[in-house]
Model the fold of this input.
Amino acid sequence: MKIRVINPNTTATMTATIVTAAKAVASPGTEIIGITSSAGAVSIECHYDEAMSIVGLAEAIRDGERDHTDAYIIACFGDPGLLAARELTRAPVLGIAEAAMHAASFLATGFSVVTTLERTRIIAEHLLRNYGMEHHCRRVRAIDLPVLELENPKSNARQMILQECERALSEDKSAAIVLGCAGMADLVDWLSEKLQVPVIDGVTAGVKFAEALVGLKLGTSKRGDLAFPPHKPYKGMIADLAPNSILGK
Ligand code: 2AL
Done:
């Protein structure tokens, strides 16, 4: 099966981290196709970055449909454009925040999320409420470091994340950690070893959930609000992204 793992930001080095993590858990026979968004912000850290990322995401889904993709992962913790992406395909589409939160809820009665910026912490709280996860999540924490600093060896990001996770376990009484950024996907083994609790990255959880759904022959429902978008012209700079252009009809 083909799983398209879409990094909705435009930083290829972050896609490389994401793809390495995805490939490490993919079953034999699963092809991981990593995509760096062709348009938008170098990192996604606010609502505007998220809204603008949906243009590149739509292109990535369009290309994926032409390539007979079996499932899609949106590899950004805000899950930008998740429902819009689902409208564009019958394949399952998973956001890494929802995948990680659901996985954590299977493994502990309470988890904490550790994300990057204070601002994305607030956005993650919105997501928790949207997904009905408030009862499972004890607290969302931030190290208050910009997303791209995760890639800077001089930033001390690893230690900051470890310390925040330790605080989560002791202060929140959480029993599992959800990593709140796709750029943290390479930290799972190290943090799991240090913390001795389940540490969940949504990229890898998303890949395994996607494999399960495809294996069950389950895809996005086309009844109701996730049906294909109605055909109509779009104007201006996104005219080429009108539903009929995307869907090839
Ligand atoms: C993210 C993420 O996962 N990728 C990105 O660019 N921004 N989200 C976050 N909460 O840090």
